[in-house]
Structure formats: structure tokens, C-alpha cells
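Fill in residues.
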């Protein structure tokens, strides 16, 4: 599964399947693409020689092509453009300096969403931005959306399988009642329930 951060959704990102776009809150967007922590890897802001505690990282890939809108999206997510964290990794007998970027940069690339991928869209709504803008204008806003792609072929196969199981269960139920009409219908129904748990309530009479 891949997570992407964008300022727009294009049909060119769509391959096959069913698109679902849901409006989400800024808090939800931060949970999906904000800085995360892990208890393994290089330590954030601490010398690795003194113990690895946690690591900050960005879970999404930026596909934001517009630099100024990218600045505003970072600000909205609580990130500062240009903010980095210096880390150290011991390689053999040397300490290697590593610089981690703690913000999303503009990245003009094309992507194709696959089933299971998540596209978080920060849709800018407002006036044309002046070059170098880093603060959201007073009369502007960013609305957040989660775009996902579902494998319709897989869904159709699952639905067809359930339908076939229901038909088999219904046929078995009717045949059992017809064959053992003089018996105990309650016992027959209990037997059917055990054979097809969860399906009995959907059977015909």
C-alpha cells in the first residue's frame, strides 16, 4: 500500500476499479500524512551511539507540483518548510551524518493508484497565490479528502460467491423440508444453521 499527498486529484491517476473520495478533517489528514514515530531505526535528535529511542519520518510520498501550495499544505499540517533533523549512523568505524527532511517538498511526478493505495488531497480554495507564499491568505482555505481505489473485479467475485452460497443453502433448506416434512422441522432448521452459519436468516421459507 502506498500513501500519496497531493493538492489535486486527476483522472490520469486512475487505472481500473472504483474511486471513492471522502472529505476528512485536518486532524484525520495529520494522522495519515503527518510525522510519525517508530521505536526502531536512527534516533531523532539524539546521537545513535547513546541509544536508539525513536525516529521521525514522513509516511507519504509528495506528488504536489506547485511549490507555493506545497508550502501552505506543510504549514497546515504543522510542518515547517526547510526544517531538517541531523542524525548519525555508525558505519563500520565511522559515524555517517544523515539529514532527514521533516517536511514535504514539491514533487512533480505522475502516479497511478492501485487498489489499497491512499491519496490524501489538500485542496486549496482561494485567490491566486503570490510567489513565495508560506501563509494561508485570510480569505482562503484548504479542504482535505481521502481518495481510494477499490478492485471492483474482486468485489464482484466475492458478491457472486456469497450469492451462490445463499442459493445452495436455500436449495438445501427447501429440499430438507420437502423430504422430511413429517419429521421435526425445528431440528432440520437447526441442522441447516450449523451447516451454513450466518446465512440462515437470508434463506427463503
Amino acid at each position: 500500500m502506498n500513501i500519496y499527498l497531493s493538492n489535486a486529484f486527476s483522472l490520469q491517476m486512475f487505472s481500473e476499479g472504483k474511486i471513492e473520495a471522502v472529505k476528512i478533517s485536518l486532524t484525520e489528514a495529520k494522522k495519515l500524512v503527518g510525522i510519525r514515530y517508530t521505536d526502531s531505526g536512527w534516533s531523532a535528535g539524539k546521537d545513535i551511539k547513546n541509544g536508539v529511542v525513536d525516529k521521525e519520518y514522513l509516511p507519504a510520498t509528495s506528488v504536489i507540483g506547485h511549490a507555493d501550495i506545497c508550502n501552505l499544505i506543510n504549514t497546515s499540517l504543522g510542518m515547517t518548510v526547510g526544517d531538517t533533523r541531523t542524525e548519525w549512523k555508525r558505519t563500520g568505524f565511522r559515524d555517517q551524518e544523515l539529514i532527514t527532511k521533516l517536511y514535504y517538498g514539491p514533487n512533480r511526478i505522475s502516479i497511478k493508484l492501485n487498489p489499497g493505495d491512499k491519496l490524501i488531497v489538500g485542496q486549496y480554495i482561494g485567490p491566486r497565490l503570490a510567489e513565495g507564499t508560506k501563509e494561508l491568505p485570510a480569505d482562503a482555505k484548504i479542504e482535505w479528502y481521502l481518495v481510494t481505489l477499490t478492485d471492483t473485479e474482486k468485489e464482484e467475485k466475492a458478491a457472486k460467491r456469497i450469492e451462490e452460497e445463499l442459493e445452495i443453502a436455500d436449495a438445501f433448506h427447501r429440499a430438507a423440508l420437502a423430504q422430511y416434512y413429517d419429521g421435526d422441522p425445528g431440528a432440520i432448521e437447526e441442522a441447516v444453521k450449523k451447516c451454513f452459519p450466518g446465512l440462515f436468516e437470508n434463506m427463503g421459507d
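The chain has two domains: 3-150, 154-202.
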